[in-house]
Design a protein that fits this description.
Keywords: Cytoplasm, Oxidoreductase
Distance between the termini: 42 Å
InterPro entries: AhpD-like, Sestrin
Order of helices and strands: HHHHHHHHHHHHHHH
Protein name: SESN2 protein
GO molecular function, one term: oxidoreductase activity, acting on peroxide as acceptor
Number of helices: 15
Pfam family, one: PA26
Largest sheet: none
Shape: globular
């Protein structure tokens, strides 16, 4: 768990990443004065890191219609939508460094109305982008005190989608908090599992390491019964067996209720989210009319 990634040994990152992408890491350090954990992990793929770093630099630091502090605030909004506390904490620091108003970091309700107007399209882009229509764009461009120009909105939408995607990278690579974030305990990613050796006994509703072992034994017994039933039933396909196993696994006590993950989130993430219950919903259900899709080339 120590180092930039919870999944990749620190020695491997330093050896392979350092040898293959030294130039990119040096450029990152010169530009930002530091090398964050995302850059360290992505350094294992130097060509990808190079493209990513150029894109990130253009989005956040080069000329554009949006001032720098608003770019970082939009990044916070996008990351918070996916409950990515790592990126929220990272860009809260960047927001202050470029002169952002600290009061805005108290939550979305403290931000200007113009930024708050992005909430709806941020929510849809993050979870159900097929529901976006031209009316959502028109509402933001409508003439008024808090209206967006077309150039501003284009940059804002690119930032939103960029950080929605980057949140997936952070979770998928097990990116650990930066040292300064870890000291403040403000940016730990949400997790349905808790280390019983370090967590308080009531962190999982009173269950500890002993209960976890018992739950594993119960799950293994269910798997054994499923395998026996497969031998008894003829014509059972592998797909059907896989479906049965996934159902058993989901129903197992090993899968923590979603409210535990929500409670584990620090308020510095939830305060940037309106309508937190809104999430992904499958749009290809059989027997139901598919929602209209918004296509643009």
């Amino acid at each position: 768990g120590k180092g930039p990634s919870a999944f990749i040994p620190l020695g491997e990152i330093l050896q392979e990443g350092g040898e293959s992408s030294g130039r990119q890491l040096l450029e990152a350090f010169v530009s930002a004065g530091r090398v964050d954990n995302i850059t360290m992990v992505m350094g294992l793929h130097p060509q990808y890191l190079s493209s990513f770093w150029k894109t990130q630099y253009l989005l956040l630091r080069m000329d554009g219609p949006l001032p720098y502090h608003k770019r970082h605030y939009i990044a916070i909004m996008a990351a918070a939508r996916h409950q990515c506390s790592y990126l929220v904490g990272l860009h809260m620091g960047e927001f202050l460094q470029v002169g952002g108003n600290p009061a805005w970091l108290q939550g979305l309700h403290c931000a200007p109305q113009k930024l708050r107007n992005l909430n709806e399209i941020n929510k849809l882009l993050a979870h159900r982008p097929w529901l976006i229509t031209k009316e959502h764009i028109e509402a933001l461009l409508k003439t008024g005190q808090d209206s967006w120009s077309l150039a501003e909105l284009v940059q804002a939408l690119v930032l939103l989608t960029h950080y929605h995607s980057l949140a997936s990278f952070v979770f998928g690579c097990g990116i650990n908090p930066e040292e300064e974030q870890d000291r403040g305990q403000s940016c730990r990613p949400p997790s349905p599992h808790t280390d019983s050796s370090t967590a308080p006994e009531d962190s999982m509703g009173g269950s500890g390491g002993k209960d976890d072992v018992q739950e594993v034994e119960v799950l293994m017994e269910r798997m054994k019964l499923l395998q026996e039933s497969q031998l008894e039933e003829e014509g059972v396909t592998q797909e059907e067996m896989a479906t049965r196993f996934e159902l058993e696994k989901t129903e197992s006590l090993l899968v923590a209720p979603s409210d535990l993950a929500e409670h584990s989130l620090h308020s510095n993430v939830l305060c940037f989210v309106e309508d937190p219950e809104f999430g992904y919903k499958d749009f290809t259900r059989r027997g139901e009319q598919a929602p209209p899709t918004f296509r643009a080339q």
